[in-house]
Amino acid sequence: MNKETRYNHSNLAKKQILTALMSSAVTIGACGFAAPAMAQNALADENEDAIIIVNARKQDETLQETPVTVTSISSDTLDDYQINEVADVVSRIPALNVQVGGSGAGGQISLRGIGTTNISAAFDSAVAFDFDGVTISTMRLVQASFFDVAQIDVLKGPQSLFFGKSASAGVFSVRSADPTQDWEMGGKASYEFEEEGYTVGGYISGPISDTLGIRVAAQYQNIDKYVELEAGTPSVFANSGKGLKNFVGRVTLQWDPADNFSANLKLNYNHNFGDSLLGHSDISCGANGVADDVFLSLSGVRIASNAACNIQDGLYPHPDGHPALGVIVPGTTGAGRYKGQSYNETNTFFMRLAMDLDLNDSLTLSSVTGIVDLENEHADHFSYVGILPNGDPGGLPAPFSDGLKQYSQELRLTSDLDGPFNFMVGGYWESRSQPLQTSQNAFVAAFLFPDSDGIGYDWVANRATKSEALSFFGSASLDITDQLELSGGVRWTDEQKVHRTSFPFLHDALTFLNGVVGGIGLVVPEGFQTGPIKFSDSNVSPEVTLKYAATPDLNFYASYKTGFKSGGVDNSSLPTAALQYIKPGFGTEAQRQAALDSVIYNSETAKGGEVGVKALLADRALRINASLYYFVFDDLQVQNFDGAAVRFLTVNAGEVTTKGFDMDWGWQTPLEGLRLSGTLGYTDAKFTDTFISSNGPDSLPGTADDVNLDGRRAARAPKWSGNIAFDWSIPVSDSLEFGLNGNAFYSGSYFASNTKFTDYVQDDYVTLDGSISVGHPDGKWKLSLIGVNLTNEIWANTAGDRPFLPPGGDDRIITQNRGRQLFVEAAFKF
Q: How far apart are CA 359 and CA 696, in angstroms?
């Protein structure tokens, strides 16, 4: 079997890293048991203060007692390694893949080989993004930076009982810091040498009164060369790099007016502006090694590619659009603003109000209200390459705008009874509006011969989706004995979605091509509206868990879990003539159904289970948590892109089975200040039923180009992955401390897409992070040198056809990670 594979060359022996990962827990465990008793006893009290609290079952529990597979990352780790966006977390979580940038959703998160495409914003993520207790249904937040974070928790496997919709594969949870009991102030400033960027931020926190606390935090980031361009790429930027600016501000209020009532309000604003939407997306020139032209099939126009066919140099071939290429329809996205310069701007307002009322000594009523208002506007070169004969940018600039308005309300009633039985019941409501407007070149060379009104774009498309979800859940726990607990519950969910698409403007050439035969030509007529396209579905998701506490420090558990993610209507449809059949009165009933089937995708469900053990050993100096899992996902939602036909293919994969094990450990060694930790994951994720994936230039359903991926590994699912880390605080005196930190992460090879058996394969790789610091033991001040991805490994997150491929073209878009980053940082706190 021939596979297109990219290889990383590392000075480290990858097999040695993998061997170290697999043997680390055994070695650390042996060392922990063999450590001198006096040294371990001295550490016991210190370890009691380092208990990790998680909210995996919508109530505060220690990491060790909750029967859920959770990897938790503390604020200290986030600071030590400059982790300030979702993609930075991958070096700490096995089988986690994060892709940043691109059109549509703007990013994606995958866990254990299960994730949702980044192409379409119509899809909810299979891995829910939970921010301070509110599940947010847009992956644009993957592009945003975060800071002043207290903890990140990654919950693996279906989490529908407690987190509801959009948690069919797991939850990525971010918890920001809350007000402190005493007044304190802190800040930090850093400069990064590779991308030439700086970050400054700080906070002030404390009590305003006996009952009211406040925390105000803000951070600003400015990077000059977030994306560095290949030599000779036409750009309006003088420094051959496309920058990124981020501002985040947050106000948190904690109000405790009575012993039985508390309220926590968070107001968060994020402004993200980048000079590129495409981000770190390079061009693989395929098996022939030749950069394919940009080809417009209806006009026959070819534009030369400027791709260097080197996906390892960290340089990207994204030209800006020439200002004279086109005039945008007045009143639409980019009009009066887009002057040939690529940009990506997102403004996000987030509000969360959490309230807890103790009705009596045994019942607590909790409310979580969430509001998200996100607006994004972007324009970029969606052919990714292209230069006209005169040297000007020759690609196809396309302005887009999309957004999200989301309102959610959750109510929970939780018991704390003295007896063996306790319960939690609740309800959740969410209303969401997602507008999307695009102006783009996709069919004809409209920029070479403008419309009679001077418009240089093919069309304007308005697409809007509104959805409403309602769910109720109940869970209960029963202490069968002092050591044995049976818990479980069920969630019922109903979701309704309504989608509308209209094309108020079509270029003269497309209007002409529309024809008159039966009212159906090559494209829809100008002014076409689909009318409401409706989707609705309901689901019941049960869960049951048995937990056995052999000792206070040794817990075993076994769980059966199910997951659900609603289907819907794809918002990426192009103005092809077949779209008209959606409207009653056009074509036959079979044609109408075929048109509906092309834009509607089914709900995704999951079922399976896991068994695990959580252990604190050697006087709690050593923690080892491990779990085995097996889950089957039906109708996994997949969207691929046909680069030659310039169309999106929305399908449901028949079945994906993912199984394996996860382990994480941490050891506070007898050596003062030294802590070792690590993770290890084995993932076997593959298609286990018929999945017909259409691909190729003639890839219409039922043609010979259809491929059945049954039996193939799922994308972004390395068989082995994990990390080893050390954190060492070395006291020098009462006022001086040195710090050393290091992290090595290994990922095995994996497919980067779900289209065919010869998909792009990412080879295995190793990354190294590290930091050196000097500062005050109490954190009053600290100077640090921080290195992220020191080996400068570049790997593929996703792969897909490059748009506008000529016949026989095989170029692919490879979305990648950021390269090496080197920081110097100064921080203070008092």
A: 62
